């Protein structure tokens, strides 16, 4: 258990952290949230002793290990990535070194009893710590985070910054510290690596504190939310979804309590004002004056203003925005694309997904004409004006211009009168807008580039990881603006919540092929399991049949000719669909029965928790709260599954017609 008492941290006159008292319990998975600039990263750096607090104390148990994944790139020795990852357990490295030395000593002094005893103790300790499995475990973690077998012996300098951060994350996971601190770990991961990390951390034996603005990640992983705001930390049991509901309820209750107190104070003040000068009422007036003085003032909750802005296409493009046929592209011998076909029409909002290295960014650069196709046709439609955002766009910023000047230069005329307000959405407020872009951090420069693209007049937005450096409020504002955008959108993002609410079509790049999913991200997830069953063979019960997905594999024109083998496979698929119908209906019935039971139990718990007598027994109150929290997480999950199963059943029935 890690105990924080009255922790404070100041930078000049700015009190970033104020008298924080918090107990971090063992085996908790905590999401640390709050707006950019609230002090979340500073707090993690205090826990790692990188920063000294200006007040308070932290009580850390003896031999308590802490691992930290920062946002900034780590400097490594020039070693293979496998060797670097295996240094994650320094005790094992030390024991291995001692084992080698002891063997050398025994070669020179064979049969020495003291050396034999030492060797036995070292081997026992090495085995206990998993030393004989450490290399296979390191390779397993590297593979899970997207590295291939051929990468293990490559030197770290051969990899980009994002991949180096993955190596450090692998090292931390192998180290398995008592407390694992991670600052925006999802920024460097593709979707499949992100899903693997979620599953891995579910079984992590230590405590985890994660700074993340990824709602899906927090919902799947954490069992506690710590909200940092105005220098304080408020803790909530449950995942992010539970936190949002609890926060809303608490805010409503606080508003009611504040309103009731205001009415009571007004009533008392009215009595004082009315009888202040009457001698017969002097005692009563004084009594009420003291009552007001002693009354503990309830502060009203701050009304969180929802940032919003609108972006509009400058001119309407022709219906065909993009047409790609037989596209091929290679980097040397590495074939990225082969026989790609893709058509995008005006007004579509689609996501481009796939593992890192599959060619997502390469495709967007081809569309933007930064690269030239080596085969096939890529045609951008008439009156199409492309706005392109990618991480490397920050290199195009003029470092001598201020933020305001840089954005104003390309902003559409309609945006210029409210430019300062819009920059506030990207966390550039007050005098910040007069900062030179040359003094900004990488994340701040990325937000300037994003603002430039969004506010420029264009009707086809191509966005590569636009949410990476945004907090929750800024992401919400971006999502709403893009949902109402009347142009065409192609977006690459690992933020599943963002994609799920925004796009209506998902195009996946996998092994040089394109797969087209006509639905949102949840639809894609569901269908991907059926279209690529090899990815989840351990998750699908053996008695379940997989229905054919409504997915198009985009190939060349010859794919329209069906062979006898294809026709036979389609007939077999129809038989499987019919069998799957009963399985789906059975699961729907099970979910409905479970929901009835849970809803009933939730009502019982609400009555018990509303009864003050419940809290006479602290243990009972805690258990009931825990059960209530679990049910509150389980019900939405079942409702989502119920909707998915109904959708699957509906599609099955349609396929049988």
In short:
With 657 residues, the protein is an alpha/beta fold.
CATH top level of the largest domain is Alpha Beta
Considering DSSP H and I runs of 4 or more, what fraction of the residues is helical?
40-55%
Q: Could you give the order of strands across the largest sheet?
A: 14-15-16-12-17-18-19
Question: Which fold does the CATH topology of the largest domain refer to?
Answer: Rossmann fold
Query: What is the average of the pLDDT values?
Result: 84
Contiguous low-pLDDT stretches (5 residues minimum) are 536-549, 555-562
Assign an overall shape.
Answer: globular
* Name of the CATH homologous superfamily of the largest domain: P-loop containing nucleotide triphosphate hydrolases
Question: How many domains would you count in the coordinates?
Answer: 4
Number of beta strands: 19
Strand content: 15-25%
Q: What summary fits the major beta sheet?
A: 7 strands, mixed
Named CATH architecture of the largest domain: 3-Layer(aba) Sandwich
Question: How many helical elements?
Answer: 19
Which structural class is indicated by helix and strand composition? alpha/beta
Distance between the termini: 60 Å
How large, in whole angstroms, is the Cα Rg? 30 Å
